[in-house]
User: Fold this.
Amino acid sequence: MPKASSVVVEGLRDWEYIPAPEVVTNKVKEAIAKFQMLKHEERIVVGVSGGPDSLTLLHLLWRLRSEFRWQVFVAHFNHGLRGEESDEDEKFVKDFCKRLQVTCFSKKVNVMALAHEQKFSVAQAGRRARYQFFAEVASQVGASKVALGHTATDAIETLLLNLFRGTGTDGLQGIPPISPLTILEEQIESESQIWLVRPLILCWREETEVYSQIYRLQPRLDKSNLDTKIQRNWIRLELMPMLRRRFGKVDDALWRLCELARDESAFLNQTANEQLSKMLLHADKQKIAVYRNELLKVPKALQRRIFRLMVEQILGQLNEVNLEHIEEALGIIERHFSDASYHLPQGLFMKVTKGLVWLMKVATK
Assistant:
């Protein structure tokens, strides 16, 4: 990671070492080039919550718009979880966009009620509704990229969350720099693939916070981010400080693990795709089938990835099928040549019959 330079900013202690705006700008340019996130003359939708990360991202892309000939739009999703504070966040983002003369789209949804209705957690329901809204805005303005304000700090926090919950190599990536925006097909139709890009992925959170102070962006404070009963907040506010005191530059070490896991996952996914094509009998949007014996011939690490690819063929990348489900399914496949079945989340059904493994979407009540 590039080293931060020192500048003096009004309102900050003069002895603090803080990153200059040029460092953040250079890191964003590096990320865009390294991961091929954005092209010249693209239309970009920026997801903006009002916090320091998303405001920094919007302000920086707005500053670079002339150089790269970008058209920038903003999408703000009001989850309605914090009452008046949520509404004030929405008003703040709209006013901020007016000052920049950037078109802002906003939407308010009662996520708590939505979660109850869909029988998902609040986080899952919010993510689905938010991503659906981002896709709608991107389709409306003709954009294929939605930029989000995730940083390297978010990535290593996600790595630890995934590790504690139980994860494979993919989870050690933390947050990928670029990923397809995937939601349930029945929610929205799009003529082309929309991608989530994270131009701040090489920046630390401290850098975006200082950037927002230097430019006096006056970001909103979400008080729920201080609640250590929430696992991610506990990792950020309690665990990481302890690890830094004990091990020193632990952030850099965890970030290197993210990068190594990303490279190895890319290689294994490519190999899994090649192997899947060799054992495939049938594939469409509702069902997919492979030859059981061919699946069992490959190493267990590839079996897991091939089965994950089969799941994603039907449900997309954002799904509730976890490592435990995959291990259970592979165990059934290994023990049975025929007459075996297994129900997975989101109406996904697997059956083993006459040497074939079928994975299919079934109707749910």
